[in-house]
Amino acid sequence: MTNGRGILVQLTSRLEELDIEHRDGKLPSTYIALDALGAFVGCRLEGYSDEEWRATWPEIWGTEEISVPLVLLVALRNAWFDYKVAPIGKTLGESFRMEGLGARGVKGRKQTRDKRKGLSNRVLNEYICAEGEISLEDAIAIVAESQGVAFKTVEKAYQECGPETRKRLARFGIIDTH
Length: 178
Description:
mainly alpha
């Protein structure tokens, strides 16, 4: 047995053990999912074929799979391994860099950004659908009134998010910027 084959046998055993612990109610499926994803990413990075690492998961998991950009899985794997080796007290959110980043954290900042993006998109929708019948300022005023927020709030949201959205719409051929 080669060292590579031994690693795959160890992984098979580990995944079966984790699955048994889950079925016995000792481990949540999320723990297993992160551990298995980390191992599969490691297999890919170490050069194992898809067939080799697919053969390591328990049959009960089935055969259905999806393709995901490796860079996303590597990010999850790295954060998971950081959590697993961290001293007691470090939270999963800290390892995933979702906590401890300001009063509102990543989730709060993302929600704020999404709200701004939504306001900006509404402005673009009003403006584009009017087909030149209203100014951008009129579109901002319409959105501010309909959403019950200040003109300046909508204007700032559009200034922050609108130009990038316009570029994306043009790139997809949805609007003409000429």
